[in-house]
Amino acid sequence: MTNIRPKSSIRAISPYKGGEAKVAGVRDVIKLSSNENPFGPSEKAEEAWRKSGHELHRYPPSDHKSLIKALAGQFDLEEEGIICGNGSDEVISLLCQAYVGEGDEVIHTEHGFSMYRISTLAAGGTPVEVKERGRLTDVDAILEACTERTKLVFIANPNNPTGTMIGGNEVGRLAAGLPPQCLLVLDGAYADYIENFDGGAGLVESRDNVVMTRTFSKLYGLGGLRVGWGYAPKQVVDVLMKIRPPFNLSRPQLETAEAALKDQDHITKCRNENARLRAWLAEALAEHGVMSDTSCANFILARFGSEAEANACDLELRKEGLIVRKVASYNLPNCLRITIGDEPSCRRVAHVIGRFKEGSAEDPTVKADVTP
Ligand SMILES: *Cc1c(COP(=O)(O)O)cnc(C)c1O
Hints:
By secondary structure, the chain is of the alpha/beta class. Helix content is about 40%, strand content about 15%. About 45% of the residues are buried.
């Protein structure tokens, strides 16, 4: 018998669950559960990936200089403020490791991304959940929840899984109202879906308490590659660089991400197609009484009358090989998060949900009795 135990905050963690990719007994599934780009990455990125396997015995560059230069050029940023991570999850984790310890509090919102809580607990800190207002980040509620122990505030803008976002004035008011020891982290995983939106980069530059995180996993179609980055004041980057693992990105990761970044035609195409299909799907579902907030991202959060109805609809979708995301663990039990796929996928989702709603209207066991 041993007495080997992790630190107590680790025991409170339930491991992160990714979107499912399989349904037993169904062959041709369409995965709409992880907000992946249905069109995949740029062909130029795929080509860079194929060519990047040279010199596998050599360590990759650890300064990420070439990718950082490309990011700074593309988004008009200061190179010194950029740090690259193995997915933006790594940047989130580094922020928690660097700024959070025992007794420190980290704020996330009611329907916020689960990695904020996990990384906070991993660092030994205490996650503090703040209510949203109608599935929208509530700046006043966050400011009220701040104490002298609050070290980080995480908001995703646009948020996952709600798809909603708050405006620049609200984000600015939040940054300006935080206590002096607290850093605001703006998770911009979905910022790329909004044309001409800087994700908060301007605020990072104009203040000294704001960090932005970004990723290649969503619009850039590279979830399998694991590349993300952060933009932060120089003094924050200096801190994170002390604990960032050296060589945290392999040469294939670096070269593929850079090639993807340079094909902005592909990015524009994917962004436009997502916006078109998102509007179409939201309207198609609304015609069947399934409402959603206007989404700013690559998914919609479909609201059902009850948890039972959402689960029954999920089952129906699965039977047809359509895998969407249940979001009960995000305090949204009567909702399903549906990634915007390509056009045939969107049509199939609309068809199955429409059929389900027509059937369930006559079925008293799945009565829609609560309006969210
Ligand atoms: C998908 C997602 C990320 C991206 O994580 P990576 O580690 O970069 O793949 C970060 N934040 C939110 C809110 C997300 O939905």
